[in-house]
Amino acid sequence: MATIHPLNWYAGWTLILAAFLTGAGIGLFFHREDFWGGYTSFRRRLVRLGHIAFAALGALNVLFSIATPDEASASIHVASVLLLIGAISMSTICFLTAWRESFRRLFFIPATSLMLAVVLVLVGGAP
Which whole-number Å values give the CA distances from 48 to 23, 53, 57, 66, in the listed order? Predict the structure, then answer.
């Protein structure tokens, strides 16, 4: 299998591994009712979102790396970078926000990166 975006492939699988590791780590304490303020607490919801973002955005990067055309346009190359920025920053900002709520103001970084990446993939055309 030849990919034109090997960085997305490696980053994607690394993010999936990070999802498994963080899931195992936080899963050690989820049986406690009061863990990080209880099941519906802001902190615990953000940690769960960060954990799931690792897996989902990792999978998206793997899919992108193998589903892009052989002769990619400039928009596809920019989308590649934006997907990486969005995937890494989403989980990071989730975890930081769980630690200090003031970091929530940074969610525009992954949200904007990921939305622009999708638009650029659509502009770049189907494989």
Answer: 8, 8, 14, 28
In this structure, what DSSP letter does residue 40 have? Answer: T
Structure confidence by residue, pLDDT tens digits, 55-114? 999 999 999 998 877 667 888 989 999 999 999 999 999 999 999 999 999 999 999 999
The residue with tokens 């525009």 is: 108
Using DSSP's 3-state secondary structure scheme, residue 29 falls into: coil
DSSP letters of 56-122?
A: HHHHHHHHHHHHS-SS--HHHHHHHHHHHHHHHHHHHHHHHHHH-GGGGGGTHHHHHHHHHHHHHHH
Domain ranges of the chain: 6-124
The identity of residue 22, as a single letter, is T
Residue type, 5: H
| Whole-structure pTM value | 0.88
